[in-house]
Amino acid sequence: MRWIKTQNKDNIRLIPVEEIDYFQAGDKYTLMMTAQGESLIKKSIKELAHELDPQQFWQIHRGTIVNVSRIENISRSLTGRGVIKLRKRPESLTVSRNYLHLFKQM
Q1: Taking phi first (over 0 means left), then psi (-120 to 50 degrees means alpha), and beta for anything else, what does residue 63 get?
Q2: Domain spans of the chain, in order of start
Q3: What sign does the dihedral 59-63-66-71 (CA atoms) show?
Q4: Alpha carbon distance 75, 81 (integer Å)
Q5: What is the pLDDT of residues 17-70, one digit of tens each?
Q6: Strands 3-8 vs 11-16: parallel, antiparallel or unpaired
Q7: What number does CATH give the domain 3-103?
Q8: Dihedral of CA 7/12/16/20: which sign?
Q9: Rounded CA gap, 67 and 26, in Å?
């Protein structure tokens, strides 16, 4: 997959996947975060996990997929979960224990 299609009213935008910071599952939609802002897409996290390049995007939680190239650092919380800080983003993302093995190879 090279592009993600988003729709806002009558406008359709094609966003290159390398510009995406992360995806977060919502109720019926998935929130896609980029440096330019956020967009809703109609694909589920499960669908995205199968379609995105596993070398570039890692699922870090049941409802979150992150662009690996955007990771600034990862630390461990007191509860044993990982916490990811992304470059140029104020929020932190939680890595569930089921996905911590991805970071042992780093």
Answers
A1: alpha
A2: 3-103
A3: negative
A4: 8
A5: 999 999 999 888 899 999 999 999 989 999 999 999 999 999 999 999 999 999
A6: antiparallel
A7: 2.40.50.1020
A8: negative
A9: 18
